[in-house]
Amino acid sequence: MNPWVFLGVAVAAILFFAWLPSYRLKRAIAQPFPEEWVQILERNIQIYRNLPMPLRLQLRRLIKQFLHQKRFTGAGGLEITDEMRVTIAAEACMLILNRPSGVYPKLRYIIVYPSAFVVNHGDMDEAGVVDPNPRDLLGESWGQGKVILAWDGVLRGAQNFLDGQNLVLHEFAHQLDSETGDADGAPILGGAGSYRSWAEVLSEEFVDLQADTRHGRRSIMDHYGATNPAEFFAVATETFFEKPRQMAKHHTELFETLKEYYRVDPREWQRS
Which has the closest alpha carbon to 250: 259, 238, 240? Predict the structure, then answer.
């Protein structure tokens, strides 16, 4: 074959395979949103009916992209259903409404167990001692493009959107956090000034929650958020979406900071 012809064919092939994923994604997004999926959202996502229609339509588009790009796998004998896929995708995509970022670009796999699963990471404490004891978990977020969830925990959090406990919001907040390369409680923000303001507000609130935890004082945020800055951001995210009025009243600066980041005001979704 003429080398120039070969080069032309090779370039054409490269361009075709580079264009194909974008074409397939556009086709997936252009498909009508199935009525069965709407029924799943109305049945499983307590807050869905309260969303204004523009946000509902935006959420549906994000769900279609999420389901096109991410691979779901059942574990522990669980068979993945559309109900699981749509419910998880919907809650994950609530965190990226009104935001120009991609749909969790580093995430590839969602592994779903029927209920709590056992892990043994051999975590090391400050003294260098490795804890060999296995633990039961409802969810984990990994930096290697993977989220692991317990389905019963997902459903419980989705159907009760008022208690400040939401497994999917928590684990996908970790995904946003890790997009910077480090899970340190600071996701991708607008610039140096944004990081300074973020650090000031969240650091102060983190210290306050640690004090509440040490002294056994009640807080609208789960005390698990006092573990480290990454867990604080995830717990604060749960509280922001599920207890927005309480957070706005008792943690005003934190609420405003998260409202600016997430670009929504969940107070508008809660009925009086």
Answer: 240
Q: Which residues contact 182 (CB under 8 A, 6 or more apart)?
A: none
The answer to whether residue 101 sits within a structural domain is yes
The one-letter amino acid at 175: Q
- Burial (Cβ within 10 Å: 0-12, 13-18, ≥19) of residue 137: middle
Q: What is the largest CA-CA distance in the chain?
A: 79
| 103-151 pLDDT, tens digit each | 999 999 999 999 988 876 555 444 444 445 566 788 898 877 899 999 9
Three-class secondary structure of residue 56 per DSSP: helix
pTM: 0.85
* Contact criterion met (CB below 8 Å) for 161 and 80: no
Number of separate domains in the chain: 1
State which residues form the domain around 85: 32-269
**CATH number reported for the structural domain that contains residue 144 in this entry:** 3.40.390.10
Do residues 148 and 115 make contact, with C-beta atoms less than 8 angstroms apart? no
The per-residue pLDDT for 8 is 52
With CA atoms as reference, report the closest residue to 269 among 123, 259, 253.
259
